[in-house]
Amino acid sequence: MEQEARSHMDLVARPPLGGPDAVPLRRLAQNLEGSFAAELLRAARPTAKEGLAGRGTGAQAFDSFMDEALGQALVRQGGLGLGDAIMREIGRRSAPKAGQ
């Protein structure tokens, strides 16, 4: 399990947060923040029978796609303020430990 987690972390860039190689790390942080924002939107939706697209065929799928799109749009407009904290934490966890 630890080896599997370590191999996943190898996919994340390990440079300082401000370096030019931090772009993949920033993109990952933005994707995580966007997914979190989408979950917040999903949780905030009223449980009434009417959704954004009514309750016809595919309405739940449309609502889900709309939540994802709105979550990503929210991040592009400045986000929830979590992106830098996510980047720091991923960078800290993926940085090689002393003696490794």
Number of strand elements: 1
The value of Rg in angstroms is 18 Å
The main β sheet shows up as: none
Into which percentage range does the β-strand content fall?
under 5%
What is the terminal-to-terminal distance?
Answer: 18 Å
**If you average the pLDDT, what whole number results?**
75
Apparent shape: elongated
Total helical elements: 4
List unreliable stretches of 5+ residues.
Answer: 5-16
Helix content: 55-70%
Structural class: mainly alpha
H/E topology pattern = HHEHH
Description:
The protein is built from 4 helices and 1 strand; from the N terminus they run ααβαα. With 100 residues, it is mostly helical. Helix 2 packs across helix 3 and helix 2 packs across helix 4. About 12% of the residues have low confidence.
Strand-helix topology:
Elements: H1 2-9, H2 23-44, E1 52-55, H3 59-76, H4 83-94
Question: Which terms would index this structure?
Answer:
mainly alpha, 4 helices, 100 residues
Summarize the structure.
By secondary structure, this protein is mainly alpha-helical.
